[in-house]
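Need residues for this backbone.
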């Protein structure tokens, strides 16, 4: 069985819209321009700083992922399951028919705007921690104010989110317990209780929108369970702001359901690397542009 897995923020790259600037994707391009005509421009001739901005990167990654999902299905290449990492859950929900591209794009744009806004009010950051005993790390964070595990990315990698001051104190004590610490270039302490205000603001937007029950089985990386109803999906997108991403458990769950082929649908190869760390000897490929489909199909 096959799963489409959709990437989150941080997968953006310069020129990533180039393969899609043609008539085949005109509907998507028109919807993107309606939301903000700068989104495409930023990734065609913008600066590194602009490309990293949440308000641009989130709708850009969502759009590329959805265009590729459309292209694959248009070529009779379908998933048995879908899932997504953080922002990627929006792409997964769109793939499963929970909402249309235009609705998802608006939600993602508002999500990015709200996260940017709240992160300017709430000082904080995120750090990738590689190596070490994850259970011990989780226990150690309890002694520090406003520090949380945001992402369980693999058996070897977690992301810590929260107060910069608390993290500096934690690092002084526990640095020797882990292999590497990498500060992430994000604007706030995402996937932590510090983003509670963002949750409240997003509810005002999402409460009026009608979701549909999924047409394709979706496994949520927020709850590690199947999304069965429209209302479940809405609750998950709200919960995301303050909850961890349980990526390791999500991939293990898909594996237990019989998935033996994983396709990363969207820019970058981040998820391919993480899946290889979680599952050994697994079939994992990616598609970042339409022409990658030939290689995918050739390996069936």
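Answer:
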């Amino acid at each position: 069985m096959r799963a489409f897995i959709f990437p989150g923020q941080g997968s953006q790259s310069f020129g990533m819209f180039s393969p899609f600037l043609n008539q085949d994707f005109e509907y998507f391009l028109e919807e993107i321009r309606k939301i903000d005509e700068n989104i495409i421009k930023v990734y065609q001739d913008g600066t590194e700083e602009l490309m990293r901005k949440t308000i641009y990167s989130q709708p850009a990654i969502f759009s590329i992922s959805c265009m590729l999902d459309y292209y694959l299905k248009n070529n009779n290449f379908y998933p048995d399951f879908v899932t997504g990492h953080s922002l990627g859950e929006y792409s997964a929900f769109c793939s499963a028919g929970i909402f249309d591209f235009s609705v998802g794009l608006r939600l993602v744009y508002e999500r990015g705007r709200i996260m940017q806004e709240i992160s300017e009010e709430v000082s904080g950051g995120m750090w990738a921690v590689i190596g070490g005993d994850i259970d011990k790390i989780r226990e150690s964070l309890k002694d520090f104010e406003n520090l949380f595990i945001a992402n369980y990315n693999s058996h070897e990698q977690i992301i810590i989110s929260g107060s910069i001051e608390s993290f500096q104190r934690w690092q002084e004590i526990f640095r020797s317990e882990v292999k590497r610490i990498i500060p992430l270039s994000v604007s706030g302490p995402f996937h932590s209780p510090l983003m509670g205000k963002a949750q409240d603001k997003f509810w005002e937007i999402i409460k009026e929108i009608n979701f549909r029950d999924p047409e394709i089985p979706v496994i949520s990386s927020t709850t590690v369970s199947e999304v069965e109803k429209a209302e479940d999906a809405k609750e998950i997108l709200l919960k995301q702001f303050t909850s961890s991403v349980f990526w390791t458990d999500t991939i293990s769950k898909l594996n237990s359901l019989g998935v033996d082929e994983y396709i990363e649908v969207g820019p970058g190869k981040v998820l391919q690397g993480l899946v290889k760390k979680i599952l050994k000897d697994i079939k994992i490929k990616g598609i970042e542009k339409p022409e990658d489909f030939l290689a995918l199909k050739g390996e069936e």
